Fold:
Amino acid sequence: MDSLQSLVALFSIHLLVLLSYLHFTSSNKTATTFSLKLIHRDSPESPIYPGPMTFRERVERYRKISDSRVSHWKQINMHNRTEQPNIMRPRVTTDDGYLYLVELEMGDPLKTVYVVMDTGSGITWIQCLPCQECSPQKFEIYDPRNSKTFKKIPCNSPICYSFKCIDQQCMYSLHYLGGDSTEGYAASETIHIKDEQGLYTHIADVFFGCSIKTHIASADNSSLETGIMGLDTNPLSFISQLGSFVLRRFSYCLVNPTNSSTPLFSYLKFGDDIGFIGGAVQKTPFTKHPDFPNGYFVNLLDISVDNKRLNFPPDTFTFKPDTGEGGFLIDSGTVLTYIQDTAYSKLEEEIVRYFSPYKDLVRNQDCSPPSKLCYDAPMGFPLFPTITYHFQGANLTIAPENSFEVDYEEKSFILSIAPLPRLSILGAYQQHNIRSIFDIDSNVFAFVPDDCSKDE
Ligand SMILES: *[C@@H]1O[C@H](CO)[C@@H](O)[C@H](O)[C@H]1NC(C)=O
Ligand SMILES: *[C@@H]1O[C@H](CO)[C@@H](O)[C@H](O)[C@H]1NC(C)=O
Ligand SMILES: *[C@@H]1O[C@H](CO)[C@@H](O)[C@H](O)[C@H]1NC(C)=O
Ligand SMILES: *[C@@H]1O[C@H](CO)[C@@H](O)[C@H](O)[C@H]1NC(C)=O
Ligand SMILES: CC(=O)N[C@H]1CO[C@H](CO)[C@@H](O)[C@@H]1O
Structure:
């Protein structure tokens, strides 16, 4: 990690140089604000829409995704790694991977690409033609030879300080934990962002990785993303590049994909476009995790079930350098919430205690993994508890439908929280219908309940 940290320091020094490299052109709209359409991968709007699914099929799919995504966390001891990935991130997968796609228009002539929104990684990349080794993808691979605004990053550019110069070409290479990887040219393109009136803001020279060698173990022809939009605090991430133009602030509101009556898209918003400054917004500072210096960690102090505090010792979730344990990550790319196993059992016990008076509930030992707690319940059982995360200076109360996945057909429900060694992660399922705001300059994570299906 030392080398990664010094890399970050190096990046920071060159950040000002980097920012002056970007320029916005827009005469009709201020460039300090914009939104991109955010589409759930299973939405009819999604280019990889798998077709209609029953509630059970959806839930099973999310569990499969979630479990494989974090399975890599379980295998590693942060302080005794044999793998040396430069990204501490579960694998980049297709089916086993991410959930929310960002629709991005780029190049001249303009092309639409879909990238996965990932608050847990930094560098944005897409596959480019001609590939040496392309991973199969359902829609057209980006061909930079057809774009007038595509540029390769020269080796003497500050951006290239962190990459390698090979045959006078600036080449990036990212190795994800779990073995997946992407390699290619460091490049830049013009990104076009359309507002509701159809007017475009053009952002020239946005750095991205143009992958010509993509290795994704589980890729197949049917369920395919082109790449990743990295939104962590790495100085080369999408949000860091837009930097002061958008006040280094972005926000999303995740629609609940299990509720098929809602339109399954919302917006990834930057800068002023975040809009509301309501009184109910709560804020907690980001904290640092030395193993993930660019990740969005917050300080979790305690958890309540049905407003009853579990009274965890105050340092339960803080990072402990001696053991490498602790930390609470806000992540858009993991489905379920994971609570470090030492604390998970106490949480589960309290939820079991909450349900114990209801004699018509039957605990089912055969839960869909990775969940450990599920019940058979009579039709219409209405009495689910809220779960509250008590952060430093803020309480995030999760509505019951985001903590318990209820299957009305099967008359059963499952807890959307599972145990994990070492680390805790707030996953996408518990973030449904919450506007989450990442304000890097102010160093705060802010949130407020919202109806994401009404996002505009
Ligand atoms: C580190 O990992 C290696 C190989 O997996 C193992 O042999 C060694 O005992 C481990 N060391 C510690 C301190 O856990
Ligand atoms: C994927 O598509 C390629 C080219 O269209 C084809 O050759 C290959 O057989 C397909 N693979 C599967 C698993 O369908
Ligand atoms: C589905 O969404 C609609 C509209 O937001 C809401 O009224 C309804 O309660 C939701 N249903 C479930 C099962 O969450
Ligand atoms: C969070 O909830 C606790 C009660 O469990 C309360 O004492 C505290 O004031 C709340 N904090 C905020 C910032 O609302
Ligand atoms: C760059 C651009 O789109 N400029 C337009 C701004 O709006 C005026 C009037 O609506 C147009 O005439 C410009 O072409």
Q: What stands out?
A: Helices lie at 2-13, 15-21, 55-75, 238-242, 341-355, 400-403. The chain has a mean pLDDT of 77.
